[in-house]
Amino acid sequence: MADSIDFFIKPRFFILRPNLSSSRPSFSLPIGTRRERQRGYSLCCTVMDAKKAGGVEAAVEGEGGVFSLTPSTKSDVDYLGESTKGDLNVKREHLQAYVEIGALGGPIEEIAMKEAKEAETLLHNLGIADALAVRQSPRGIFCSRTLNLRSIGAIGYDMDYTLIHYNVMAWEGRAYDYGMANLKSMGFPVDNLQFDPDLVIRGLVIDKEKGNLVKADRFGYIKRAMHGTKMLSTQAVSEIYGRELVDLRKESRWEFLNTLFSVSEAVMFMQLVDKLDQGEVPAELGPLDYKGLYKAVGKALFRAHVEGQLKSEIMAEPERFVEPDPELPLALLDQKEAGKRLLLITNSDYHYTNKMMQYAFNKFLPNDMVWRDLFDMVIVSARKPEFFQMPNPLYEVVTDDGLMRPCFKASSGGLYSGGSAQMIEKSLDLQGDEILYVGDHIFTDVSQSKVHLRWRTALICREFEDEFNAIIKSRSHKSALIKLIQQKEIVGDLFDQLRLASQRRQHFRPAQSLEATNMDDFELTESMQKLLIVMQRLDEKIAPMLEADGELFNKRWGYLSRAGLWDKSHLTRQIEKYADIYTSRVSNFLYYTPFMYFRSQEQTLAHDPHSYSIVDT
Questions:
Q1: Which NCBIfam families match (predicted)?
Q2: Among positive and negative, which fits the CA dihedral 570, 571, 573, 577?
């Protein structure tokens, strides 16, 4: 990080950039008349060491500074309903001086057009991708609900599959191995079974009554289903679920796969459904239905986690299981230096958390920093979702070997076990939409912090990178498919009109138009016959193409975010409902700034005559 700031002032805009070659701030006035340059100097402020001053905002807010920050006591809401807390403002006296030199004279529409073009050019020259370009990439941060990062005072992070990403084949594969070993000890026939991570994807739903795994659309209608390890036909899905909707409130029946931790459990259950159907489950285990089988799988995995064998193996060889991200610590460092108070809130215990964070963070941090230096507060064994729902006892971790003592108040810099989100809010003197929480579990992390506390939320879903790339690769396939569907719609519309004309003719009524009425019977029948054959052949072509849509992501289930060609999946509906922003990994924040204003995209409606998306002019 640079220790000094260059402040370039031009009659039309500011350019703020690090000066890597100087230990003291320097200023340049590259253009303008002498009078303009003299006026321009009145806008300059002495910017001290950015680190010691706590960032640019803290430095420039002092006496003689150009800028001021909007505090929470004076914050308002802007035209998009977002808090203006943390916004940087030009002080009135400097703003007036700037206007007097005529730098911003004229209609704002013309000025904005010039500034936008110059800003785009400058970003390109500096080698910095603009936010729109980043968003249109696998590493983008996508916005469901407008979020102003400037108004966020604290950012909380989950650890597992959020700050720490595991190799799914390694982590879930070993969880599967331990779970299957426990099932074998219980008497289940598992010897010939192997872990298959492609069998399931996040966002599917287990039907514990029928032994099925299903994919539902945003309304809960089931679009694809698998019984055991065999995919069901469209006809079978319609017969089984034609009158049913997925209702996640009915927890006794439906189990939503919220996270990658669900992969091993789902694979085990679906494989054992096959064993149960084939009559291979010993009678000594008692009369088992699919619900009983699901409970047995859950018990086996619970034993694997409680006995600690899996986590001990990971702690002994983290390089086998953890995929470090060198950019991640730097992204958090930017946020901390921008004045955000960072929190780690994880359900993992202290020893495991410390080992994983040391491995994934310390070697990538500058100036002998360690992972604890990034966080204002660390909460282990948080017991989410209860952490967001109700008070729980708080303990302070006081020694390196994890010794704890009861504690009644959380303080900045502390390391704690248990507690509650309300304690955190009280300690930070922040609440509600001043706090952003980032996690990978839709229910435990995102839904509950949103529903109970109205915290702002971000979901981490690594699979979106693969899905984004799969969508790009399948563009030609989708384009050809849509073209065929559109052709069928046109042909079908004509067929329907001729069919209606024929129907009216049978009841001695005129057709829709004089021309249709005047068609002879043979011409009408011949035209309908030809069109019907074309549509049937189109169906033969379209049906397998629809089945293949999304297979570059997963051959069985298609895309994570889609349920069919046009509609959103149940997972996407959950994301839109509970996650303000979502992205594939935390380090993607590095491609934005800690002051980013994330704006949700236009949500088109069925009756919209056109889109209002911005286009080049």
A1: HAD-IG-Ncltidse
A2: positive
- Check residue 86 and give left, alpha or beta (phi > 0: left; psi -120 to 50: alpha): left
- The Cα–Cα gap between 214 and 232 comes to 10
Looking at residue 66, its pLDDT comes to: 82
> Cβ contacts of residue 73 below 8 Å, gap of 6+?
none
Amino acid at the residue 285: L
Cβ contacts of residue 551 below 8 Å, gap of 6+?
558
Give the number of C-alpha atoms closer than 13 A to the C-alpha of residue 291, restricted to the C-beta side: 5
CA–CA separation, 228 vs 270, rounded Å? 4
Three-state SS annotation for 386-417: HHHHCCCCEEEECCCCCCEEEECCCCCCCEEE
Q: Quick one: DSSP state of residue 447? A: I
Give the position of tokens 């039309």.
Answer: 12
Q: Is 184 left (phi over 0), alpha (psi -120 to 50) or beta?
A: alpha
Q: Strands 404-407 and 415-418: what pairing?
A: unpaired
Radius of gyration of the chain (CA): 30
DSSP tag of 20: T
Stronger pLDDT, 609 or 145, i.e. the higher one: 145
User: Could you say which DSSP state residue 601 is in?
Assistant: P
Q: How far apart are CA 501 and CA 521, in angstroms?
A: 10
pLDDT over 70 (residue 30): no
Question: From CA 501, how far away is CA 506, in angstroms rounded?
Answer: 9
The number of beta carbons lying within 10 Å of the beta carbon of residue 252 is: 8
What is the rounded CA–CA span in Å between residue 419 and residue 391?
Answer: 6
* CA-closest candidate to residue 274, choices 350, 353, 193: 193
Is pLDDT of 42 > 80? no
Token pair listed for 543: 């049906």
Residues 198-242: tens digit of each pLDDT? 999 999 999 999 999 999 999 999 999 999 999 999 999 999 999
- The proportion of the chain whose per-residue pLDDT surpasses 90, expressed as a percent, equals 71
Residue with more model confidence, 129 or 50: 129
Q: Which of 38-52, 268-282, 506-520 has the lowest mean pLDDT?
A: 38-52
Global pTM? 0.86
Contact 530, 523 (CB under 8 A): no
Within its chain, how far is the Cα of 409 from the centroid?
32
Instruction: Classify residue 63 as exposed, middle or buried by CB count within 10 Å of its CB (0-12, 13-18, 19+).
Output: exposed
Q: What is the mean pLDDT of residues 173-201?
A: 94
Among 46-50, 249-253, 328-332, the minimum mean pLDDT is found in: 46-50
Measured torsion, CA atoms of residues 543, 545, 550, 551, in degrees rounded to the nearest 10? 100
Question: Which long-range contacts does 164-169 make (Cβ < 8 Å, 24+ apart)?
Answer: 164/322, 164/356, 164/357, 164/360, 165/322, 165/323, 165/325, 165/462, 165/585, 166/260, 166/321, 166/322, 166/323, 167/320, 167/321, 167/322, 167/323, 168/197, 168/260, 168/263, 169/195, 169/197
Q: For 422-451, what is the mean pLDDT?
A: 95
